[in-house]
Each structure stands twice: as structure tokens, then as C-alpha cells.
Amino acid sequence: MAVKRVKMYLDGQWVEADSGKTFEVKDPATGEVVGIVPDGGASETRKAIEVAYRAFKGWAGMTPKARGELLRKVDSLMRERVDALARLVTLENGKPFEEAKKEVTFAVGYFDWFAEEARRTYGELVPSPFAGKRLWVIRQPIGVVGAITPWNFPATMVTRKIAPALAAGCTVVLKPASATPLTALAIAEIIHQVGFPAGVFNVVTGARSRPIGDELLQNPFVKKIAFTGSTDVGKQLMEGAAKQLKHVSFELGGNAPFIVFDDADFDEAVEGAVAIKFLRVAGQSCICANRLYVQETIAERFTEAFVEKVKAIKVGPGVEPGMQVGPLINEETLKKVSDLVEDAVSHGAKVAVGGKRLTEGWYAKGFFYAPTVLLNVTAEMRVCREEIFGPVAPILRFRTEEELIQRANETIFGLASYLYSRNLGRIMRVAEALEYGLVGVNDAAGYTHEIPFGGYKESGLGREGGRQGIEEYMEVKSIVVNLPK
Asked: Is the pTM of this model over 0.90?
């Protein structure tokens, strides 16, 4: 397989790092090098910010309709290249090709949605209490945005940030994850071919996040930081952003409860639990089910059915047909997952299936971990308190609705949650009581473009998607006019 050599994208040009250094992008399924990318840092980031700042006035001055038309062209060209983009996602991220296609298709939708929302950043004419005054409220783009995206959704996490920012009239400097920069650069190539003005969108790649992140935080031209990643890193970014009171929007860690009441549609609940736990980038997603709560009257039956489904999951390299779960992203992630399982077992948990690294055959060179189900789990175990970020499902039992709500909310996180029930009153009570930004009711598909997505508590700030998504990139200005006498 040919190694893909790419350059970073600054001011409408494809450039190398100032130092000439590069770093390798490796397939987590095989360890093979699939890409060689410029190893940029503070100086390249500074240049990107400066060109984005220069481009801002012209881009913000375009009509929302004109910006929307360019976004629609990106949408159209990305749709033509879904398969090619999906292959990149699989190569650098490891997720199965069919799953990667679903991700890219969903990612494209943000350009379509925000192309329309660009024209709907409405202001207000507020009735004045004074006859000689008029009161206007308008929205204007914030300015240069520093976007930092993770590796688990190399396409979606990029488009979910840059589409609303560009639609609002902001210019962007993107820092994609060092593990998965190829997809971001392929999206940049599409934006370039569509004909966006130079400097409006820029991509800086680097093996180390710190120099790039520090420049985004310290440079006064940057007015907002948009980040998806861990809560710990989010707190560090927020601390740095506070020195200049930069705007921030963060989607951070999760500890999603998946709740099954005894009146649920049993088969749908089992299928949903498998899907949201294992079939989203091998459990490496902030909205994946982290704790499975099953009402004790159906716990035995549910566990048996769930374990049988998990045993049937096909694990392997994402390029192989029919695979459902690929590798973890790196050795560090694999070690954390393994440590969480070992800790749970040492405190009394029982492994019903899985519970080990896969090392034979095609697993030998990759970071594969067997889909795992843990029983006899207690809330005190690390596997219930920390975000697993891997294919491990702890099952806990509960008796009453009131008990369940208390236990489900006993976490510092509040990103996503899921509940299965056919009792409408119960659905309303529990959905309203859960302290999470997303509640899936008899649904494990997650969010859509049309609704806002974000977290409670330490799972984040702000919202992405929906009409609220573009508002995160705009300032509100009030204008008071004294009419001439």
C-alpha cells in the first residue's frame, strides 16, 4: 500500500512545516505507516492565525446566502467522495469501512444544515420605551476560531465545528488529532477546490498538541476555542482561554448510563445496548454506553441475550468485509481498557465474555481488545466511575425508578444517556430527571444535525448542531438609536 504524503493547508496553499520535519500516521490495525504529515508547531499556527485574521473582514462581509452557497458546494463534493473519505477514516482510525461510510455521510450533513442556518441568524427590533429611540439587536461573527478535534470521529468532529463557524462568517484554524490528520486534510482539499477565499480555512498539523494549542490560546487574534476531547484537557484549555476571556465551547468526557426497565421492548433494548456500546468506533466514543442498568426482574434474561449478541460480534481490521469492531487507537488506550477490567475483576467483577487483548492471527500487530461484558459490578469500581473508551460493558442491576435516577446521576459527567421503557409516564419522569445533555428514549442512534448536542456538568460547555450551533460562533450586539428631532 502506498504511503500518502500530504502537506498542511495555510492561506490557500499546501505547505510543509517550517522545520521540514514530518511525522507518521499509522494504521492501528496493522501498525503500518499510511501517511506522512508535516510536523508543525507554534510558528505555523501563528501564520495561520494571521492569515485567518486578515481574511476575516472579507469573509464576514459576504452575504450569508453567498457563504451558504459555498458550504453547499462542499456538501455536494464531499458526497461524491464518501467512499474515498471513508477509506481514509478506516486507515488512520481503524473503524470498519461500513461504519466509516456512515460517519462521513453524517459529517457531510453539517455543511448542508449550516448552509441553511447561515441565512437564519436573525436579529430583533425591540419595542422601545421611549418615543424618540429605536432598539436593534443583531448578531455578528466572533472572529478567528481555533478548532481542536479528536481522533475518534476524524470527519464528523471536524465538520461539526467548521461548518457552523464558516456559516456564521468566522475564519478557522483547525488542529486535527495527530493520530488522524489525513481526513481533515482531505476535507481541506475539498474546501480548496470549491473556491473558498484564501485564509478563511486553515489546517495546522503537528505531532505535539501543546505548541499549537498554546499559540491558539495566547494569540489575541483568536476569539474562540472549540474543542472536543477529554475533560482534563478541556479544563486546561479553559484556564488558558480565561486569560484573554476567549469564548469557548467544549464537548468533553462522558459516562453514559443505558437504562432498561422491565416494561421495555426487550429485543430493541438488547439491540440498542450492543449498538451504542460496541458498534461506535469500538466503544471509543463520548456518547457510548458506559454503565448498563437493568431492572432486576429481567436482569438474568437480559444478560443472557446481551452476552450472546456480544459473542457474535465480528472483530478485525476495518478494511476486511463484514467487520463490526476494529482496533483501539493506540497502546495507551488499550492499556487503560485492560487496567479497568483488571481492576473490576480484582474487586469482585466477573467476566462473562471477552476480558482480554486479542493477539493471534491478524490481531497480532494491532490494538485489538475483545468485546467484554462484566457482571457483579458495583458503583465504586473504576469501570463505573471513569470513562471506559473501549469495548467493555459493565452490567448493574436496580430495583426502583427512584433508585435508578439517583445512581445514574452520581457522576461528574453529563453528556449522553439512554432509557428503554414503554410506560409514557415513566419515560417523561426519567428523561426529565436525568442530568444529561442528550437522552435517547428507546433510541440508541444518538443525536442528529437538527438538534443541539452538548453536555451537563463536566461534560462540556455550549452546544453543537441545531440552530444553537451557529449561535456559538456569533456575538450579540445591541444598537440604541436616538432619532434626529
From this structure: yes
